[in-house]
Predict the structure.
Amino acid sequence: MKISEISLRSTLRSYIFWIIVIGLVSRIVVSIFFTYPNDSGSWSRFAEAVIAGSTLYDRHDYYYNPVWGYVMAFLTDLSVISGIGSFGNQFDELVFLDGFKVSYYNSMMITPEFAIVLKAFLILVDLVVAVLIRKLLLEVTGDGRKAAIGTAIWFLSPLTIYSSAAYVIFDNLEVLFLVICFYLLYRKSFFLAGSMFLLALMTKPFPAYILPLLVIFVFFRGLDRREGIRNVVMSMFGFLVGFLILYAPVIASGEFVTSFIALTGRVGTAADVYGGFLSHVFRTIVTFGSQVFIWMQPLIISFAFILAYAFWRSDRQSWTDLISCSALMFAVVFIWPVSQQCYYEPLILLMALMVSVMDGRRMMRWSMLLSVLSLVYLLLSHNFSLLLPLACYTDLIPLDWVLDNLTSFTLSSVGRIELYDTSRWCVQLVIMVVMASFIISMVRYRKEVIS
């Protein structure tokens, strides 16, 4: 081995080391001082329900499929074993927030000890995703530099750092299952890939948009039509087996239909679902008129099938083509205004994997621009509520100061213009422009590849 090659490998290892160190230190610092109380308050209530012996869907405010519920139950038991006896507290001074102007605030504050457990788990998931991105890019490209850039795109993203360390939200778990699925597809392990896709889909529903692309890719991985069909059947079998294993406890408890409330709406009790499931689905669709994302579903779904058809008709159905088409699909999904920018994490993953075929610095710019704008939106939305747990449990910041700034920021206006809502919509419009620019870039890339 030449001295220059040894030096290059040593430099790349140094890059990876510092990417991991900077990413971990950033997450630790953010996690110490900032905690978004709304979602984390719900996790503390859920933990208390687990200790009381409740099932996943006994609580009317658990709106998710079982994956996160199982993880939460495990982390709750781990916390109890570690000696944590309290998961959250209701503060009388904050009760007015429950009926305040926006729903982003909460009077239930997660305890620092339980917050550490949840944040540590989410940070670990971030780290595992980074390791898998590096491993996958090394296998696909054999280029350590590309692997380092892809790792940095994910692990140094302001959005992923904030989501795990302050937001305490589990979208990175969806990303973990997705990156494992992509890796298994690359290795032609279709049964396990189907199971991983099931877990990603049952964590958050967004992977459903790339399902047509995945089916076509799996089919064309076969040497002939017969083998292609066998590959698809194996993937479907893995999906089904994973589904049965995942839902066995839910089916046994009689809460199977209730577990899908995250896809059809947020209802109060299981009886609401059983009493009129189809009418509830319809009601969900027609009562979300203010959410452009919901109304755009026919267009988004139509685009998913048009893109899949173009993928089928093209002469290229390689793994890198799957990644580029998936990135384009997710960009179309998320160009419409959404209220939680943590949804963008799968797109950040695909931008990291796009380094395999596109200029790494270009992908880094796209991902950082999207991440920074998303972080600005989330900071405007969450603002001073991020300091509430710190003020409630320590003397570092006066609680009155936090509440005064929170209310004044949320209610401030210039004339008839409300700054809280207007500022967030302005950032969202800029994000839409960035998404549109990225979509144009990806369409041009696809045309160049096909031609």
